[in-house]
Amino acid sequence: MLWYIVRRLLQGIPVFFGSTFIIFSMVFLTPGNPVLRMFGDRTPAPEQVAALEEKFHLNEPFLTRYFLYLGDILQGNLGTTYAGQSVNEILARTFPTTLRLALLAVIIQLVIGVLVGLISGLRKGGIFDNVSLLVTLLIISMPVFVLAFVAQWIFGIQLGWFRPTVGAGAPWSDLILPAIVLAGLNMAYVVRLTRASVIETSQNDFVRMAYGKGLSRGRVIPVHILRNSMIPVTTNLAADFGILIVGATVTEGIFNVPGVGNELFKAINRGDTPEIVSIVTILVIVYVLVNIAIDVLYGVLDPRIRYVK
User: Fold this and answer.
1) CA atoms 185, 187, 190, 196: torsion sign
2) Per the domain annotation, does 80 fall within a domain?
3) pLDDT digits (tens, 9 = 90+) for 226-250
4) Which of 54, 150, 208, 215 suits 243 as a labelling partner, its CA being 20 to 30 A distant?
5) How many structural domains does the chain have?
6) 309 falls within a domain
7) In this structure, are 145 and 63 located in the same domain?
């Protein structure tokens, strides 16, 4: 098992270097001078431009800048924004909020998605099953920004059940509506995955044998059907956690959540390339680590995977 974990970590190294190089290239090789974008419509003095280019190594060759940036990342220094703020401090302030939002979204997915999927699977072909499939298809086909604006307008403005935007400090109660929106698409997949897994498990011989022994449905469903159906669902939820952290940019921007995604959204609007590169790099690292953890979880749940050559 230890060698399996080490092997998965080693496989993540080229992914890290490749993704950081692509991110750095996409941001810093775009046309235009990022220093000039800082001043907007104003025309800076040549001395100011030269000083800022030297400060952010923009006058260095591309590969030199990349290796300087990579060296800072490996030392834990994420650099500073064009406004002089430390990106480390920005992430320390915003990442806990994004983490809470993602955690709340995963809980919503787990409770609602698994429950609806279980009932649909046990009542295959019934009214509840058909309605749940229709609703999940509607959610899957709807872009997240549309779902966010609709939920904000109906539940936040018209009905007043939730605050339309997140208040200062981002209390848990204010994060419920953004978490529902963030969980919406993945929750639809959890419903369908749980339903399919429950239907498949219900047809196994050990389930029929349990009923043949005289066990009640109240015993067979949670112990024999649900427990064995949760293996693919559990690994899917673990993968979703990384996706939710990385993909919260649009949701946080719409609901004004003071998280990493909202900060990235603002940095893109400002054209603050050092902050954009650093934040996206951290999100990539989180996503890679979560996926490595999922691979290890697969190895724990199914030992055969560890020995596949």
Assistant:
1) negative
2) no
3) 777 777 777 677 667 666 776 677 8
4) 150
5) 2
6) no
7) no
CB 258 within 8 A of CB 166: yes
Question: Which residue type is seen at 292?
Answer: I
C-alpha closest to that of 189 among 88, 263, 106: 106
C-alpha–C-alpha distance, residues 40 and 35, integer Å = 9
Contact at 8 Å (CB) between 187 and 108? yes
- With CA atoms as reference, report the closest residue to 277 among 109, 133, 87: 87
Shared-domain flag, residues 156 and 45: no
Residues 66 and 137 in one domain: no
Contacts of 175 (CB under 8 A, 6+ apart): 97, 100, 101, 104, 166, 257
* Mean per-residue pLDDT of the chain: 79
Which alpha helices (H) appear in the chain, and where do they start and end?
2-28, 34-38, 46-55, 62-74, 87-108, 114-122, 127-140, 144-151, 176-202, 205-212, 217-220, 227-246, 249-255, 260-270, 273-301
Considering the domain boundaries, does residue 87 fall inside one?
no
Asked if residue 88 belongs to a domain, the reply is no
What pLDDT score was predicted for residue 279? 86
pLDDT at 305: 54
> What was the pLDDT predicted at 142?
80
Q: What is the DSSP letter of 161?
A: S
Give CA separation, 89 vs 78, 86, 96, 200, 221, in Å.
Answer: 9, 5, 12, 49, 49
